[in-house]
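Field: sequence (string)
Field: structure_tokens (string)

Example rows 1 and 2, in order.
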Amino acid sequence: MPIDVAADVIANQPLSADYNVLALAAPAIAAASAPGQFVMIKANAPALNDPLLRRPFSVFEILRGADGTRTGISILSKRIGVSTQLLYDARPGQRMACLGPLGRPFTIVEPPTEAWIVAGGVGLAPFATLAEHLRARGVHSTLFYGARRAADLFYLDFFRALDVELVLTTEDGSAGERGRVVAPLDRRLSSRSPTAPVMIYACGPERMLAATAQTAMKYGRPCQVSVERIMGCGLGGCYSCVVPMRGDDGGAHHVRSCLAGPVLAGDQILWD
């Protein structure tokens, strides 16, 4: 069951002019969270009930005390509207409504399967905790991470410390390979033995997810995608987050990504 708490802001770290990492004291949510799950957060403007609804954010990090006890969570946010502006401007001690953990998490593989993680922009958010779990299981991980420019590539040292191999791309060529992140993924898959097991994990813009899922299907590889949808409640009541899926009969049906996802099988989503 999700837990509804009033979470105090512990810290707010700006990463750039648009991105920040917000740390919240939410030990009960942290204790119950698994990689790929999300929370619904509401930060009201002073003296106003604006915005009215909570907004979904992937659990980015699990915060721990000196004894290893889970003490809170962090979220990675990009400033694009009223809600994310309030999160960007939040100060320590400010209290926010936080509901979670919600949704279906990633299925975590075991060796000898390798994990190939594909992240675009703020789609990096669910992968910090995933990388920690993969390393704890001894799984070799590669992060294919794409952004518009070098300044939008974050937490690289964090992933390096977990022995994650980094494959970087930027649209302007200021870091890594110039172009889209799916290109090096395709090349790596094309040179990989079909008998060598790989699980692909992806989160990012819809077009990137579609391209990643289609590339995985081309090479017969499984792919778990974390979809991004507008959500009004996070509990399945508002039906604002539906995703078209392929049914067993070949026809289409819709699932609520807050309940069936946000992690879904890439080859079952109807991308067109």
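Row 2 begins here:
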Amino acid sequence: MQTITKETLKQDIDHLDDEQLKQIADFIAFLKFQSKLSKSTPDLSQFANLYQEFADEDRELAEIGISEYTKSLENEDKL
């Protein structure tokens, strides 16, 4: 089997007709799209970890907020 290099591909492309060149261009566009799509696929486990981290943080802040709210109500009652 022949080794594929950029140079051999360029030589092969030079011998193609317009319809074949259009097919090559379409395929290249597809490869670029596929590459972008694979790069932008989110890691769902990362989202799960972030969700858990933020949920824990929200819970802590809510507990802190409740105790401060309770203190604020107690101070209002003293006024």
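free_text_note (row 2): Residues 44-78 form the longest helix (35 residues).
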